[in-house]
Write a structure and sequence with these properties.
By secondary structure, this protein is of the alpha+beta class. It has one domain: Hotdog Thioesterase (Thiol Ester Dehydrase, Chain A). Helices cover 20% and strands 34% of the residues. The chain has a five-stranded antiparallel β-sheet with strand order 1-3-4-5-2. A hairpin with a 3-residue loop joins strand 3 and strand 4. It is elongated, with a radius of gyration of 16 Å. The termini are far apart. The N terminus and C terminus are likely disordered.
Length: 158
C-alpha cells in the first residue's frame, strides 16, 4: 500500500477539488478494525479546514477579522464500503453551491479499494457574537469558487 502524501495537494487555478490525506488510526475504528461511522465526520472536518488553509483563507482569520464562522447546517453521509485500520485514505472536497451565507460541499473519502463514504455537507456562515446568518466575505467567496471542479465527474450531481 502506498502511503498518503505528507501534506495536502495544492489547489490549481481555474477550480479544482482539494485532496487531503488521512491515515486510519486505531482510535478511528471499532473493535473489528473498521472505521467507526462518526469518524468520517472528523475526517471531513479536517479536510474542510485544510482546504480553507490551502485556499489562503483560514477559518481562524474569518473568525478574527470578520467575526464570522462556518457551522454545519446539514450532513448526509452515504456509506459505500468500509475503511479499515491503517489504510491510507484521501478526502476530496469539492464546492457544489455557494449562496450569500451558505456553502454546499461534497466530500468523498476514498481508500485503496475505492469510494468509502460520500458526504454532502451544507455549511452556514454565521456571526460569532449573534449566531445569526451572515454574508460570506468577498475574499472567502472568491477562494471558495476555486474549490469547484471545472468539470465534475459524470454522475456526481451538482
Amino acid at each position: 500500500m502506498t502511503p498518503p502524501p505528507t501534506s495536502p495537494l495544492p489547489l490549481a487555478g481555474g477550480g479544482a477539488p482539494h485532496h487531503h490525506p488521512i491515515r486510519v488510526y486505531y482510535e478511528d475504528t471499532d473493535a473489528g478494525g473498521i472505521v467507526y461511522h462518526a469518524a468520517y465526520l472528523r475526517f471531513a472536518e479536517r479536510a474542510r479546514t485544510e482546504a480553507l488553509r490551502a485556499l489562503g483563507v483560514p477559518h481562524a482569520t474569518l473568525v478574527a477579522e470578520h467575526r464570522r464562522m462556518f457551522v454545519v447546517r446539514r450532513v448526509n453521509l452515504d456509506y459505500v464500503r468500509p475503511a479499515r485500520l491503517d489504510e491510507a485514505l484521501t478526502v476530496l472536497t469539492d464546492q457544489r453551491a455557494l449562496g450569500a451565507a451558505t456553502l454546499r460541499l461534497r466530500q468523498d473519502v476514498t481508500g485503496p479499494a475505492g469510494l468509502c463514504v460520500r458526504a454532502e455537507i451544507e455549511l452556514a456562515c454565521v456571526g460569532t457574537e449573534t449566531g445569526r446568518p451572515a454574508r460570506i466575505p468577498p475574499a472567502w467567496r472568491t477562494a471558495l469558487n476555486e474549490l469547484r471542479a471545472a468539470n465534475p465527474p459524470a454522475g456526481t450531481g451538482s
